[in-house]
Predict the 3D structure of the following.
Amino acid sequence: MLPARPRPDKARDEAEHGADGSPAAWEAEFPRLAANKPLYQDRFIILSRGPYSAVTADSAGFDEATWLDRSSDIRRAHECTHYLTLRLFGQMRSNLLDELVADTAGLVAAFGRFEARLARLFFGIEDHPRYRPGGRFENYLGSPRLSDEAVRVLQAVLVQAIDQIEAWLATGSGPTVADRAVVGLLSLSLEQIAAGDLATHVGHPRRGGPVDGLETFG
């Protein structure tokens, strides 16, 4: 985090020179300001530039330049989604649910829609039930690692969840839809997403539903 100097300076100026301003007013205001770091500190997310999820342009179905640009779009929204979970829920988690939801935000940001084909490719499960070593799925199998049978079940659940998200988001698109989808999906478990009926659980992606009223980003 870096200090954002103009904001505390402005707050001090308003406290000292406002309608009821005085040096004493700034002394009273300063502890409140100091306790609320977002008022005077900025956060930066530093992103790498490269093929997203180590997926080649050829595999993704794009030329090199286009895929690098799209990868940057996906990565930016993906990482911002993790930051959103920190702001909304007080933690950034590293699990399949949060990764899938962050990828959902990334794909919608990059393409205006969710593509199950690419989502499966990112995890290395594009040839389900076979798994492609090097996909991100293997990063979320626990320590100690899940049993082989549990891994097979989890992979099937992930594939089903991806398909359900694609079907749900096919009825809407755009930044507002992505915001609502992120918050709504994070309220569910991976198993609930895979079970379907997302419109009942979190509403229509464009019209909203049970998750309306939650603060979103964008």
In short: The first strand starts at residue 2 and ends at 3. The mean pLDDT is 83.
